[in-house]
Amino acid sequence: MVFMAVPAAFAVEPVKISREDTALNLTATTEVYANQGEAFQVSTAAGADGIRRRIEVRSATEGHQGDWAVFALANVSDEQLERVIVAPHFRLVGSKLFWPDLGSQRISAITPSEGFALDRLPSPDSDVFRITLNPGSVITFVAELSSPDLPQLYLWEPNAYKDTVNSFTLYRGIVLGISGLLAVFLTILFVVKGTSMLPAAAALAWAVLAYVCVDFGFLEKLISITSGDQKIWRASAEVALASSLVIFLFTYLNLNRWHTHLSYVTFAWIIGLGLLFGVAIYDPSIAAGIARISFALTASAGIVLIVYLGLNRYDRAILLVPAWALILVWLFGAWLTVTGRLDNDIIQPALGGGLVLIVLLIGFTVMQHAFAGGAYSQGLFSDLERQALALTGSGDTVFDWDVARDRVVTTPDISSRLGLEPGTMHGPVRNWVPRLHPDDRDRFRATLDVLLEHRKGRLNHEFRIRAEDGHFHWLKIRARPVVGATGEVIRCVGTIIDVTEQKNSIDRLLADALHDNLTGLPNRQLFLDRLQSVLAIAPSSGVKPTVMSIDIDRYKHVNDALGIAAGDNILIALTRRLRRLLRPQDTLARLSGDQFGLILVSENDPVKVADFADAISKAIMVPINFAGREIILTASIGLASYVDQQAHASDLLADAELAMYRAKRAGGNRVEPFRPAFRNNGADRLQLETDLRRAIDRKELSMAYQPIIRLSDGEIAGFEALMRWEHPKRGQIPAMEFIPVAEMSGMIGALGAFALEKSCTDLMAWENLTGELPIFLSVNVSSAQLLNSELCNDVRSALSKTQCKPERLKLELTESVVMENPEQARLVLDKLKDMGLSLALDDFGTGYSSLAYLTRFPFDTIKLDKALLNDDMGDKRGIMLRSVISMAREMDMQVVAEGIEAAEDVAELSRLGCAFGQSYLFGAPMSPDSILRLLKERFPQQKRA
Fold it and tell me: What angle in degrees, to the nearest 10, is found between the helix axes of 158-193 and 197-215?
């Protein structure tokens, strides 16, 4: 039973050996058995008598894992053979990329089927056993394995094995010597030179030296290490090699100058590789596998960076191409080796030598770049050389005038810059004069004459010179005279700079400061300056200028419909039309976006001035074809004529603008002469704006509420909140008068917030005194509020402060308000609807009345304008009302009719399905106290106990 429990193996075929076989690879013919226990049985190979025997081998070491290898040898010669069996501890071939095999002791002992256990020969990097084979003997060998992997097993003739070891030792010594010299040499260069690329190259050289020392077994000769320690050292060497390559690539290519994120990525990469040194202590295979992957990724990223930077003419990248190509070749060979595709004994030491060759080539590259420039890179040049380098770097042209021979030479030749034949500008200085601008010739000659006469000073002169294409270049010459022994000027040497771009930039800035960029017309500042000049000479010259302010009607709608580019093209077209009507002494300017100003000096007769204004209006009304569309524009024109000798330009323009605003308020498309009464109207508007700013603080604003009645039973369904202003001097001012002022002055936001909060406060106050009421409250919203992003915040703030439920609040908006900016309106209305508020479309039937708005916007109520209830419509009124109300009911929308004047209208609207009505027939707007009394009367059952 014990015999049956012992693992057994079948016999293997023997490898035949003759006297001529000096080296045989037994790896393929050796069978490995894992986890077989401490006792192992095997059938031997058939001997000369053909008999197979069964032997049992027991482990000779403690803690054996039960891994065994079996092979058989047959001496087919007629003499005794001496051989050695060699199993290397580490072999790069087939070591794998992930979780690589980093080497260890392979064989603890070998037991033959005949005789005693084999003797182990001393060897630091292999397991070596001596065997003796008698003539004609067939012996089966059982090897007790220290690890389950046996990468290679060789049978050597002792002298051949010794010669091979000696030859590899010589090669390894040479490679180690070169690697060490490279590391020391690059380190010395770093100390001497101090550039950042040298320490990076030296670090790579030291990493290669460390790898070669471990791979060639040199480290074991320096310190005593075990097979387990060898794995740690080998993994650490591979991590150091991968880390130093990343550092060298980043430092040499100076990647931090190209992108900051590359620095962060590289730093994180190096930190990660640095942590692998700690991982190597606990699991060397994982650390070595990650290091090998990092090396491959670095080589791949390096070739991408080198190609990209090389295409951008970065000299460092171009110099690194040969070395990196060698790295890629080495990487390909290493991949073939570790994956087992390339299998021979030479490849491992060859790859070590390849690393040294790579470092050698990188060292040459680094030195070539570090020492480029010779003496200049060390600052070993004279002051004259330094000045010459500075002059060359500035790109200026050297001007050299030999006064004695009257010969001018420029270096480089300025003739080519002017498009002339080479040497055209060389020769006597008088050859320059014909090409100078006529306004600069006398000044140029006078400047040179003064320089020669005074024999000192500096020449600093700007002039224009004509190029071959006819354009003038601005040149700036800065030079100083050179005085000879006789005290006379013998030369004049300096530099010439082309300052054409600077001059053009200055001219453009001056033009932009006084002219409109789009049309090229004078702006408001230049317009007022010219008008003031005309007014200054008016008393003595008899000129009576007329100022016109021209504003294009509905220009904003053109911009909104066609885009800003189309609007700009239309302004340019209008500018060309108006210019054709002017005479040379008249001035046309663009004062603002769609407002033009005109100074008419060519006509003094009032009749002709009026005719000229009509001609302008008609010119603007001529259709403009744009993108297949015909656009017809009109203008509001204000006139202000010179009557007061003390008039100022700004006052006259202000009068014309007041007249223009009066024309716009009258509907546009008209010419309005200025009248002094317009100033009072403007002053009243300013005073009204000032008073309105104080009205909120003084509590002059209040809210009135008009009932909204349910037509079916006559009960109160809600109220519309209306703002009232009780002015301390003027009394009650209607909302239609101060609301436009608030919108134009930017106060509408504050008024809207006041209306919302006051309305919600009053509603909650009524309920506190009467109990919860089945009513809603409607508050009007203006266009300025709707287009302001703060509307939602104002509503949310009012509801939060008053604890009013959002479903009790209804916001009313007119169709014209929504259409000022449909997209913005839709976004704001959707937000309000999501908050739980109701939305009503006010004055339905007076604006666009597009049915698309009822589906596009989240309205739940429409308010019919009183114009739809007008009896003047005759029979069509009933058809119109029936259609609108039926459509609203089909869309689950409520209908409120405004302006109901008679009980018959109430009956008709109720019969048609209109739910609510609002007009003076049901009640005028009332104060909050009056509303409270009304609610107590109409809803007595709601009162609290």
Answer: 160
